[in-house]
Amino acid sequence: MPQFFLNKRLILLLVSIIFLVALIGFSLKDRKELTWSEQFVKDTTGFVQLLFHKPAQLVAGFFENVQDIKNTYKENKILKERLEEYVMLEAEVQTLKKENEELRAILKKKESLRDFVAIHATVIGRNPERWQETIIINKGEQQGVKKDMAVITPGGLIGKVQHAAQFTATVQLLSSIDRKNFISAYVQTKNESVFGLIEGYDEKRKSLLLKQVPFDAKIEKKQLVMTSGLGGIFPEGLPIGEVEEVVPDQYGLTKMVYVKPAANFYDIDDVIVVKRKIDAAQEEEEAK
Amino acid sequence: MKKLFLPFLAIVIFMSESILVDLWPKNEWYQDYLFAPRFLFVFILLITVYVTRTYGMIYGFIFGLLYDVVYTEILGVYAFAFTLMAYVMEKAMKIFHNHLAVTCFLSMLAIMMLEFYVYGIQLLIGKTDMPIDQFNSHRLLPTLLINVIFLFLFSYPLKQWLLKFGRDEREE
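YS: structure for the whole thing
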């Protein structure tokens, strides 16, 4: 036994294992903010990453373009057909928007959960170990990005801000498993909105799981799923995806809906961090 | 000036992992098979073998910590593993004959151990629920494959360069 404790290297190893466990515990703790040293390291590497990423992206972009040209003819055909539909929709949206504004004016309700300020950002890195699907973007707290904000692409919701440093931020994609990663959402059915919680991701089916849906809700395939804006700091009405399949859940008390994500979680170049207008207004008041 | 080239190369390799994963064509293969480039880890092992153990362990700790802070946000995991594996690698090289093929083979073994270690930790803290057979087929094999390609392409030039660097270092 004494010999065991005299072995310097073994003791060093044991001490570092204890240290490792402590550090893991520290980083898993529900941290609101990163320590300043972590933020500093992240910002510095973020800057270097940006330098390397831009030229690499250009080269990769060239090969992608060549690929794209092959599909152009087919796509063009489909898009032309869509264009006519689009004109009609556009006109309808305009009238609805106007009507909405008028009605709001009558109600004297200026802000809704729907309005948001967009912060545009570029992806400068991706977690190479791929246990957690996270990306790094080049906007941080200085530009108004905060923890838990929603992140979207033109396709739809892709994730939320995991941690924000001063000039960079880490975005956790919806496809990563996190037991604390709930997003309040609703399904747009014909008559009403059915609420539920996005609570996970099925990797095999590549679809999100919408749970806690009332059992009597009438949900059909292809209906849209959006964020509800209840709880957290997500705005209302960001598209998440469409209903793929509805099944009763484990205990048969509620339903579970498989949601096919609207956005592509893999091919992400530019993202928009979404800040609710209500929150922005509140912050300004607080600042005064 | 020459001294600065080693950290510079390490930084370039550190960045290249993230860039490779980000710019890889996002096809079915990418979505189904989770390969993780471990170029930095291989580089650290090569430093250990061809320069000195102290160098390898210091680089392992610094860049492991950088990896933790920047990418995974779970501190300590890689800093610990990189340092320890650099130490183990040097001990293993004493037993075996120092040849490039042996180094490459041991590096692959080390990558395998690293993958299992990280998988264990992810399971322990509940960040993944991947079963072991899926881990083997969808993670371990593609990871080994991509790193074999890296070793095949870069191990020889890296070895030559690191040996030269080690010689220069000793002369001073």
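YS: worth flagging: The first helix of chain A runs from residue 2 to 6.
IM: good catch. Also Helices of chain A lie at 2-6, 8-28, 36-107, 277-287.
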